Amino acid sequence: MRREEVRMAEEPLRLVQFTKSFHIGGTEVQVVELLRGLPPSYRVQLAVLQDQGPLMDSVLRLGFAPEVFPLNGSLARPNSALQALRLAQWLRAQRVELVHAHDFYSTMLVVPAAKLAGTKVIVGRLDLAHWHGKTRRALLRSLTWMADHVVGNAEAIRRMLVEEEGLPAERVSVIPNGLDLVRFDARMHEGLKAPLPDTRGAPVVVHVANMNHPVKRQEDLLRALAMVRLKGHALHAFLVGDGPRRPELERLAGSLGLTDTVHFLGHRADVPAVYARADIGVLCSTAEGLSNAVMEGMAAGLPMVVTRVGGNPELVADGVRGLVVPPLRPQAMSEAFGVLLADREMGRRMGAEARAFVERELSLERLVRRHDVLYRRVARGG
């Protein structure tokens, strides 16, 4: 090995994690876990577009003071180019070897800046680009092509990148999300932070998702619950999450006669404890990457009913760790609920299999180890 290679191998790898903000979301949670878990052989720095969000407290407690590169509005404004130049100068000054951009907006800034600075760059593609219009998707594809490597969190995303966007397969890695089970279990056993509605012993299904975008399809869950009710089953639902669509969803629940059994809980800081008081978990999206909500329901030992989109079937093996149904089919979802309500022991077996899968395949240790191997390979060819 040459002297320069020996020196590089001994020095901490200078890495920047770059994300939009630290509002609560699957991507942001995974960034926090990487900040917490990467070994001392890294010199990790953090950069953001906005130093905001409930998870900022966790970031600060870990000792990270993020460098901020604010977009202040539209990507089309001159400020975006100014911030890209600032970022390129900062990357050079900090002698950064590798920067990992975790989301769409970060990618828009990071890839051009990294190329100007001569810094290696990894782009995270963690969804199916379902919320982008044609122009944005074309821009994202172009910048993804410019990256040194791309990380998806599900095989469904890898297939999209290779088959639809034409990326060479060797430039795409799949690293599933990880869950810190020790912390998850501790939160589950801490108990509730606020009371839950009294369901009088009736079974409960939990849905955890924002109410910002129709892709989450809470309306399909509501219609499925109405069908379950017509068949004479008592099934309550806890809808965790909030957003601009909540009022219309509440009106739909009322029109379906579900106001006594469907409970809108808003944002909750005690999701693991809520899951622990349920019998079934559900996600009815029309597009997903690898859902943290599904992973957490599985970690809580729940049988999950999920739609056959994105990474959902990779997490929930149909008939083994839960039930998989077609998207946009409330009737199929209601039938899945009926199966689990009719055979509670089968549901418990599926929940146990789900928990075992998370322990085996989706641990935080595996998440960190896989990123560690990839970072070293991309940055130093190791």
Looking at CATH, the homologous superfamily of the largest domain is: Glycogen Phosphorylase B
For the largest beta sheet, what order do the strands appear in spatially?
3-2-1-4-5-6-7
How does CATH name the architecture of the largest domain?
3-Layer(aba) Sandwich
Q: Give the CATH level 1 class of the largest domain.
A: Alpha Beta
Label the overall shape. elongated
Helix run count: 16
Helix vs. strand class: alpha/beta
Name the helicity range: 40-55%
Strand content: 15-25%
Oligomeric organization of the protein chains: single chain
Give keywords.
single chain; 382 residues; alpha/beta; Rossmann fold; 2 domains; seven-stranded parallel beta sheet; six-stranded parallel beta sheet; elongated
Describe the overall structure.
Residues 24-182 form the Glycosyltransferase subfamily 4-like N-terminal domain. One of its GO terms (molecular function) is glycosyltransferase activity. Its EC number is 2.4.-.-. Pfam families: Glyco_trans_1_4, Glyco_transf_4. This is Glycosyltransferase. It is a single chain. This protein has 382 residues and is α/β, with parallel strands linked by helices. It folds into two domains: 3-178 and 363-380, Glycogen Phosphorylase B (Rossmann fold, 3-Layer(aba) Sandwich), CATH 3.40.50; 182-361, Rossmann fold (3-Layer(aba) Sandwich). Helix content is 46%, strand content 16%. The chain has 16 helices and 13 strands. The protein has helices at residues 3-10, 26-37, 56-61, 78-93, 104-117, 134-146, 155-164, 181-190, 218-230, 246-255, 271-275, 292-299, 312-315, 330-342, 344-361, 364-380, and strands spanning 13-19, 42-48, 67-68, 98-101, 120-125, 149-152, 172-174, 204-208, 236-240, 262-266, 280-283, 304-307, 322-325. It has a seven-stranded parallel beta sheet, with helices on both faces. A six-stranded parallel beta sheet has the order 10-9-8-11-12-13, with helices on both faces. Helix 3 (56-61) links the parallel strand 2 and strand 3. Helix 5 (104-117) runs parallel beside helix 6 (134-146). It is elongated and about 65 Å long. The mean pLDDT is 94.
